[in-house]
Amino acid sequence: MDVAAVVSPLFSFLGVDNTYLRLIAEAGLFAKFILLLLLLLSIFSWGVAYDKWSLFKRVEAQTRAIRSSVSRMRSVHELSDLMGSGFSGPLMGIISESQKVLQRMGENVAGREYLIADFQRASEKAALDALSVLEKNLVVLSTTTTVSPFLGLLGTCWGIMISFVNIGQAGSASLDVVAPGIAEALIATIAGLGTAIPALVFYNMLTSRLRKLEGEMQSFSISIVDLLEREVRAQQVAR
């Protein structure tokens, strides 16, 4: 397959001179291998970033809707209305645990207080499980951020080495001799940075949103505990 014929339209669309495409086409096999690895890492990182961005957007919308509904509730029993309302996301796991606590509540007031402590532990586990799902595949971005510059540096060192080999073979350090190796080295450097920088930006933005969601889950769990404690006090007064 003619790589130049395939990639040339893309370079033209981006306004990139075909000279750069020719440099890639004339690069050595090792340099092309490095560039291929960087291309695959870039594709994977952009794919993960898009997938996680969409997922976080949905989860954040569900979180806002659930918290808005719960903020208007005065009894923990009203949470059961949310179970069949079509809501989803990490907060629903915490609500599910609160319903289990309500089902286990008996006439023993002390027992109810212990159940609230059980709910706190169960809600923490539900939050950790949800975070584990949300964090899935973020390692692709962190790995791309870490590995890409080193792959680019490896290609750079290889290109410089090729330049020195050419000098030794030609017995001259003219531009025609050193230029191919230097160009190959710089292309690898640019590709490494071009792969790592977007992955780093995506990773920082997504982890920031993940930490925000973690805080939302902790705050929501405290709100549910308040409703459960209010239910315990109401039952104590009723007795």
Helix-strand topology string: HHHHHHHH
* Alpha-carbon Rg, integer: 29 Å
Structural class: mainly alpha
Mean pLDDT: 78
SS element count, helices: 8
Distance from N terminus to C terminus (CA atoms, Å) equals: 83 Å
Overall number of structural domains: 1
Instruction: Give a count of the beta strands, DSSP E runs of length 2 or more.
Output: 0
Question: What composes the largest sheet?
Answer: none
Protein described:
This protein has 239 residues and is mostly helical. It has one domain (28-238). It is 86% helix and 0% strand. It is built from eight helices and no strands. Helix 1 (3-13) runs antiparallel to helix 2 (18-25) and helix 3 (29-71) packs parallel to helix 8 (175-238). The longest helix has 64 residues, at 175-238. The radius of gyration is 29 Å and the shape is rod-shaped.
Give structural attributes:
239 residues; mainly alpha; 86% helix; rod-shaped
Strands, helices and their partners?
Elements: H1 3-13, H2 18-25, H3 29-71, H4 80-83, H5 90-104, H6 109-135, H7 138-170, H8 175-238
Helix pairs in contact: 1-2, 3-7, 3-8, 5-6, 5-8, 6-8, 7-8
Short account of what is shown:
By secondary structure, the protein is mostly helical.
